[in-house]
Amino acid sequence: GALIFAFLGARAVSVLPIEVIRPFVLIMLIAVAIYTFKRKGLGAIHVPRLKGAAEMRLGLATGAVLGFYDGFFGPGTGTFLIFIFVRLFGYDFLNASASAKIVNTTTNLAALLYFVPTGNVLWSVAAIMAVSNVAGSVTGSHMAIRRGATFVRQLFLAVLTVIIFKFGYDTLKLLVR
Length: 177
Fold this sequence. Notes:
Structural class: mainly alpha
Order of helices and strands: HHHHHHH
Low-confidence stretches: none
Shape: globular
Number of helices: 7
């Protein structure tokens, strides 16, 4: 679901104005932060809630929605994925983060499948970002595995707070101009 809808989202971004979705995303990020800060035990233990067909249906639905969002817009996708895996699927933050990386890689691949043939990739920037992303991912994975779900939760909340401030600042600049 994420792969197909990320491709469709990438295609839609060339048609629809991004400014329309920014305030909604900011509100969603703030809601995720408030919810996660209030629920101290959220994501502390790994107790998957669904199995079989129910898990598949929810996975396809959330993959489709977040895949489209990532292909169309992108910022905060990893955060939303981690939150969905924790809240809806019952994962702890460590397993949610690992699962989110797989889905996010898939959605990024789908967006590339659309943007590369249309010539909308800045290769010099993309190459540097790809190398940095891999290096950060390897380092972060080792830290997460060593320190566990509590550490990933703390890091999730810290990064989420920074994203909210940055996203809020950028959205305000867009609305004021």
